[in-house]
Amino acid sequence: MSTEQTALVRKCRGRPKQFDRGTALSKALNLFWRHGYEATSLADLVEATGAKAPTLYAEFGNKEGLFRAAVEHYLATFYEKSFCLLSRTDLSVEQAIEQYLRTTAELFTDCDTPSGCFMISASSGMSSSSQDIAEMLRGRHLSQERTLCEYFEKKKLTDEVPKTTDSALLAKYIACTIQGMSVQARDGASAEQLHRLIDLVLVLWPELNKATAAQPLAH
Fold first, then answer.
1. DSSP label of 90
2. pTM summary value
3. Assuming Cys at both sites, which of 65, 143, 145, 149 could form a disulfide with 175, CB separation 3.0 to 4.6 Å?
4. Quick check: 191 and 105 in contact, CB under 8 A?
């Protein structure tokens, strides 16, 4: 345990009678989202959550454990709705991708949360000492891309996506679009501006399937 952690434990002895894990995770998530993993100290988390240090240790182990829990909380709270769109059978592929991107744009510009994507924002500027966290975030990013790729592959079976389409390349294009929207939102882009970018993607959509077939992505 670090000197900072020891001091906090001594200062904050005892466990609160009432501890709301969900509320604590939301507050910790907001802090990590705004400042990143490394710039957020344990003292900041204690102050933000209102929980005493021993309580946070008991629930999450350490700052890394709390951050990992915050990532899962983010995915379950904010991204579940987007991912569910890909399983709807009443939407065409174009409609599903449109709603997926528009839902994401609304999240990135929601006034109730920090701008942009939490995981993209939190992963910026990490040092070698946070390699495990960086790898975990990278894995989550790739998981989103894989989900999109699997979606396009599934739609090939029903001829909703041309069989010549390179699903991996098309998924990477969408993932890059999302990452770009996150950066734009962090730089102050409005929801309207992001939706205009999505409009452009939709205009290009018929050609994207052809373009991804022309230059397949190496696996």
1. S
2. 0.81
3. 145
4. yes
CA distance readout (Å), 183 to 66, 107, 136, 170, 205: 25, 13, 20, 20, 22
Residue 122 · residue 30 · CB < 8 Å: no
pLDDT tens per residue across span 115-168: 999 988 887 767 777 888 989 988 888 888 999 999 999 999 999 999 999 999
Asked if 121 and 74 touch (Cβ cutoff 8 Å), the reply is no
Show Cβ contacts of residue 31 under 8 Å, excluding neighbours closer than 6 positions: 40, 44, 45, 48
Radius of gyration, CA atoms only, the chain: 20
Burial class (CB in 10 A: 0-12, 13-18, 19+), 137: buried
pLDDT digits (tens, 9 = 90+) for 53-65: 899 989 999 999 9
Coil vs helix vs strand at 87:
coil
Contacts 24+ apart (CB under 8 A), 9-12: 9/53, 9/54, 9/57, 11/53, 12/46, 12/52, 12/53, 12/54
